[in-house]
Amino acid sequence: MTLVIHVLLKIFDTILSLILRLYKNVSIGSGFRAKGIPLLNAWDGGEIVIGNNVQLNSRNRGYHVSMYSPVKLFAESNNTLIRIGDRTRIHGSCIHAIKRIEIGKNCLIAANCQIMDSSGHELCLENPEDRINSKGKGKAIFIHDNVWLGTGCIIMPGVTIGAGTVVSANSVVIRDLPPGVVAAGNPARVIKEIVHV
């Protein structure tokens, strides 16, 4: 019975991957794989560009931690871009852009991460009653090649994460991180430099 379920899921994933190629303002490279049903939204002229051999995993089955929701890629407004590099894997995480979010090649994004280039609303400290009707301004996020985000990371607006960096589970990144380090905490700080042999 397990083999039958596995085969049926593989067929479903193949059909789903073909259907996702029909989405408006979404371009998908060759070798794309979807497990489960991701939420892809490119509104008002926004664009989502997915590279070759990218995997979007929205299925808990076979994944090592609990995934709270499917992958969500949301390019909210005109001239918004979400770009995902070749061979990157994203598991049950939200990437929400009103300006620009770029993720490099060979990145690993574990489940339950939140990557957002806007806080959603302005602070409106002088007139907090206006906050509910405000819309946050975007600051681009750049995640370079070979970055690994552990489960539950939050990447805040305007952040750049350097190539090869590892961000520990449940870290909150509010400032740029250099390449080739391990970072952890809230706010995330460098705890180790990675020595390349």
Automatic annotation (TrEMBL):
Keywords: Acyltransferase, Transferase. Its EC number is 2.3.1.-. SUPFAM superfamilies: Trimeric LpxA-like enzymes. Signal peptide: none annotated. One of its GO terms (molecular function) is acyltransferase activity. It is an enzyme of class 2 (transferase). It comes from the Bacteria. Coiled coil: none annotated. This is Acyltransferase.
